[in-house]
Amino acid sequence: MRYYARKKQIAESNNAENRNKNVCALAVAKVLGVDGATIYLHTWDDLARAIRSMWSFRSVKSAIKLKRGDTIGSIRKRVDQHFKDNEHKGIFMYAVRVNGHVILIGTKGQTWVDTAPKKRDRREVLEIYGVYAALDNPIKMRMLKRFLKSKGWFKEEGVNQ
Q: Is the pTM above the cut of 0.85?
């Protein structure tokens, strides 16, 4: 059954260049440096698997008191407050699932990645997960260091280059 579901997702993909990965999930994965971690990026589960390859990825739905009917616009202040209360835990980004789409939100509630932006965002939030640096996992920390170096965002101190 999964085979036919995946075939349908590939056929209906909104990415003409790579039908295995939808545009919004791929954009989020690229920002997080995990776009090559999985073959497919069609569903929330595909994206979660890719993100978990380098980061810790946990639901913050109850922590920000998400209620049915909450929209992207209505949760921004709660996201900011959640970060202020939990920044010592390594959280640095939030992945938000709305109907048929995924958005990456920063720690102050600002939109980082949205391939279908809205001026007044009234899309209902279905899931919200925090993206954390896996500080206690040396393998993921090495992957993070490699990713940051590839972007030019990390330079080792005390090493002649």
A: yes
Q: Is the pLDDT of residue 133 over 80?
A: yes
**Cβ-count burial of 140 within 10 angstroms (0-12 exposed, 13-18 middle, 19+ buried)?**
middle
- Say if 7 falls within a structural domain: yes
Residue 160 predicted with pLDDT over 70: no
Three-state SS sequence of 109-132:
CCEEECCCCCCCCCCEEEEEEEEE
Structure tokens at 1: 């059954």
Separation CA 111–CA 48 (nearest Å): 19
pLDDT over 90 (residue 148)? no
In a domain, 94, yes or no: yes
125 or 133: which carries more pLDDT confidence? 125
Helix %, strand %, coil % of the chain (to 5): 40, 20, 40
**Domain count for the chain:** 1
Identity (one letter) of the amino acid at 68? R
Q: Could you tell me the end-to-end alpha-carbon distance of the chain, in angstroms, rounded to an integer?
A: 53
Higher pLDDT, 21 or 121: 21
Residue 157 lies in a domain: no
Neighbours of 50 (CB within 10 A): 26
Residues 65-88, mean pLDDT to the nearest whole number: 93
Give a yes or no: residue 128 inside a domain: yes
